Amino acid sequence: MRQGQNSSCTAGMKLFILCLALAVIAGCTTFHPRPLSPSETAAAFAARTLDAPGLKAFLAGHLQREIMPWPPQSWDFPLLTLVALYYQSDLDVARAQWGVARAGVITAGQRPNPSVGFTPQFDANPSSGVLPWTVTLPLGIPLETAGKRGYRTAQAQQLAEAAHLQIATVAWQVRSRLRTRLLDLYAAQQGETLLQERQAVQEESVKLLEQRFAMGEASQSAVTQAHIALDQSRLALREKQPQRAEARAHLAEALGIPVGALDGVEISFDVLERLPAARHLPSQEVQRQALLNRPDIVRALVEYAASQSKLQLEIAKQYSDIHLGPGYAWDQGDHKWSLGFSITLPVFNRNQGPIAEAEARRTEAAARLSALQAQVMGAIDRALTGYRAALHTLETADALLASRQQAQQSTRAMFEVGEVDRLALVSAQLERAASTLARVDALVKAQQALGRLEDAIQRPLDPSEVVAATPDTDPRAMEANHR
After folding, report:
1. In 436-460, which positions are buried (b, 16+ CB within 10 angstroms) versus exposed (e)?
2. Do 172 and 161 contact (CB within 8 A), yes or no?
3. What would you report as the CA-atom Rg of the chain, rounded to the nearest whole angstrom?
4. What are the extents of the domains in the chain?
5. Which architecture characterizes domain 88-123+139-460 according to CATH?
6. Span 286-315, pLDDT tens digits
7. Residue pLDDT, tens place only, 17-37
C-alpha cells in the first residue's frame, strides 16, 4: 500500500515538473532576426522623392485637403516643413528613443518572479522497506515592500514622457534647420542674379569709359577704377555660384532627401519676403509662455520629477524586501511541508550611498532647469534686440533703394530728352544695383535675426503659419505596413 502511494506521488511530481516546464517555455518570447543591410538603407534613401504616394497622403492628412496638382508646381515653406517631418531621420531617432523609454515602463512595472528548486537526495544506507530517495521542492516568493514598484514605475513613466517631449524639440530643430537652409539658398540665388545684373551694367560702363578715354574725354584713373570694380564683381559672382550649389545640397539634407530629388523642383521663397511688424514682436506674455512651455523646459521639469521618484525609490530601499520560502519534501515516503521566511538585515548600511546620489541628482536636475530658463531668457532678450536692429537696418536699406530707383528714373527721363548721356544713365543703374544688393543683404540678416528669435521662443511669429503636428510614429513605416 505504501509503495502504491509512493509511486503515485512520484508520478504526480513528475507531472507537476513537466507542466511547470511547459508553462515556462510557452510564455517565452522568441527571437526574430531583423538583419540590417547598409546597401539597402542607402538605396532606400536614394529612392526618396517629392512625388512619393506616401508623402502625398501625409501632406493631405495634415493639410486636410487634396494636393492638386500632384506634385505641386511650387513648394513653399509650409509644404517643405511637412516634407522634412516625413523624411527626416533625426525624428526617427527621437521616436526610437521614446520607444526605448516606454519599454522601460514595462520593465519597471514587472513584479519579481518566484523561484522553484529541485533537490533529489539518495540515502546509501536506507532502513529496510524504505525508499532511499528524498526529493525537496523549495519555492522562493519575493515580496517588495515600501512601494518600491510604484516609485520605480513612476520614474520610468516620467522618463518616457521626457523622451516624448524630446520629439517636439527635435521637430522644432528640423523646422529651424530647414528655414536656415532655405534662407541660404534664397541669399545665394538672389545674390547670383543681382551680381550678374551688376556685372552686365559694369561691362557697359567700362566700354563707355574706354570710348571716352580714346576720345580724350575720360581719365586713365577713371577707366582703371571701372576695370577694378568689374574684376571684383566677376570674382564675387564666381564665389557665389558654388555657394548656390552648396546651399541646394544643404536644403536637401535638411529635408532628408537626396539632392537629386530637387532637380526641376520650383522652390517658393514667399515666406522670406515677409517680416513680422514691431507690433507682432513677443510680448511679456509670450516670453512668459516660452519660459514655461518650451518643450525642452517642460522636459527638464519632467526629468526633475523623475529624479524625485528615484530619490523616493532609494529611500524605500532602506526597508528590506520579504522572501517567503514555502517548500515541499518527499522524504523516503514521508510528505513534509515547510514555510520559510527571510529578510536582508540592514546591518552594514542602510542604502545611504544611493540615497545621497539620488539627492545630488535631484539638485542637479533643479539646477539644469533654472539654468535652461536663464539661458532662454537671455536668448530672447538678445534675439529681440538683434531683430529690432535688423528691422531698422532694413528700413534704411529700403529707403536708400527707393531713393536710387527714383534717381535712376529721373536720369532715364533726362536721357530720353537728351539732357544726359548714356554713361550717366549707366552710373545711375550701377548705384541702383548696389542699393539692391545691400537691400537683399539687409533682408537676409533680418530673416536670420527673426530665425534666432523664433528659436528662442520655439514658435513661429508669422500669424498665418500653422505649426504642423509631429507624428509619434514613423509615417514611412506606416506606409510600408499598408502596402
Report:
1. bbbbbbbbbbbbbbbbbbbbbbbbb
2. no
3. 38
4. 50-77, 88-123+139-460
5. Up-down Bundle (1.20)
6. 888 888 889 999 999 999 999 999 999 999
7. 555 555 555 567 788 888 988
